Amino acid sequence: MSIAILGRVARAVAAGAVRSGRFVAIPATTTVATRINPRNKCDWAAPERYAETVRPPDEATTLPGDVYFDQDFFELEKTQLWKKSWVAVAETTALPNPGDVIPVTTGNAKIILANDGGTIRAFHNVCRHRGAQLVSEPCTRRRTILCPYHRWGYALDGRLMGTPSFDADEDGKTIPEKYRKQLSTSHVKDFDKKKMGLLPVRMETALGLIFVNVSGDAPPLETWLGGLLDTLGPHRPSLDSDEIVATEFGKDYEIRANWKVLMENFLEYYHLPAVHPALCNVSGVDEHRREQGTGMYCCFATDPLTAGGTAIDPGRLPVFSAIEGTSHATTAYHCAIFPNVFFSVYPDHFYRVIVDPISPTTSIERATLFTTKAGVSAETSKAVLNEIFHFWDNVNTEDINICEKVQKGVETRAYPGGRFSFRFEEPVHRFQNMVAQMMMGGEGKYVMPKGDQ
């Protein structure tokens, strides 16, 4: 490849040029004669690494196989992608009551989520004294967060309350009265408890999810979600209210595949006939259409849904009240919010999965089935919900089996990347371009994909 062409590619990518309303694209007149060998030790933030993926989808090549197992790429993702994105870390239903506290992790950041009197707050999971991790497992009915090392205590709004904490706990006061004076910090110069509270993490909620942005400089969450909020607009009065409840049905899956393989699998329906023949009976391939505006998400719809004798056929449970009597009562929306959550919203339930990367080749999926309060309280609801969950569990297991085969395949050293089928796989191209833009981006640089043309 000539130096001149490489320069044009790098300048086009760095400038954020957009063609046909999409991401950065190399001009169609540019011919890249030789593919850069991705197998060499490389700078994964370099624009030329993504030159062929950022082309329009009918010209583009998929990301190279290395990005699904390379340790250097995985480590760079932690700072370039996970730190800078709005990451879904939990369902709001995971902290239903005041005093609920749970630990979560995203990238290199260990975080505490706390329900402080009905307000969910997020903090770095570290004591301000000597740096001990504060919370290691979910707990309930907490008024304070106590450090296990020296018993410093923090209120659920982050304020430092005790140094060490002398508040009663389940075992009574743990520090004898005669030692309390000696353990006072009054002799420490310029020590101000007001300045030693827990370190906050930027956090917002939407669509029943808790999102964190560790870097603190991402666009507002509403901008990140963009057109998805309009697409799901008729559902939002239900999704953002207490009408929606998490059922007792959920499951965690440990999967031998990179997190991107799992996200990309959800984003295309090309594989449905081969992998999910039963799903095609209610969500046919020909009934799919893309529903994407500007924003860090991908979405397509099934319209209309059909009754194919499956557990998820329309009409088995009460529909969401906000869409009753509308065309949305016969439509399903399949949504993925970058980087790590996907869900299918049916008229009477939705099945949502949060994906957590564990290593370059291992991921955890946390799946939960939701429905309406009316759907849970119906006389036959438990049996119906059990059938619906097992249907989705079977679909997800089918996906996991094929994704683990994909993982084995992309680790083949001879695999340089593939091609996209525009009709079925445009959302995968959109997702891979989000990955590329985040990996190339400097501080404060965010490039949003445009809407469908």
Describe the structure.
- It is a single chain.
- The protein is α+β, with helices and mostly antiparallel strands and 453 residues long.
- The protein is built from eleven helices and 16 strands.
- Strand 8 (202-206) and strand 9 (209-213) form a beta hairpin.
- Helix 7 packs across helix 10.
- The longest helix has 30 residues, at 381-410.
- The chain is globular and about 75 Å long.
- The two termini are 32 Å apart.
Architecture blueprint of SSEs:
Elements: H1 3-15, H2 71-82, E1 87-91, E2 101-106, E3 109-116, E4 119-124, E5 144-146, E6 153-155, E7 160-162, H3 177-180, E8 202-206, E9 209-213, H4 221-225, H5 228-231, H6 236-239, E10 244-255, H7 259-266, H8 272-275, E11 288-290, E12 297-302, E13 332-337, E14 341-345, E15 349-359, E16 362-372, H9 373-377, H10 381-410, H11 422-440
Antiparallel strand pairs: 1-9, 2-3, 3-4, 5-6, 6-7, 8-9, 10-16, 11-12, 12-13, 13-14, 14-15, 15-16
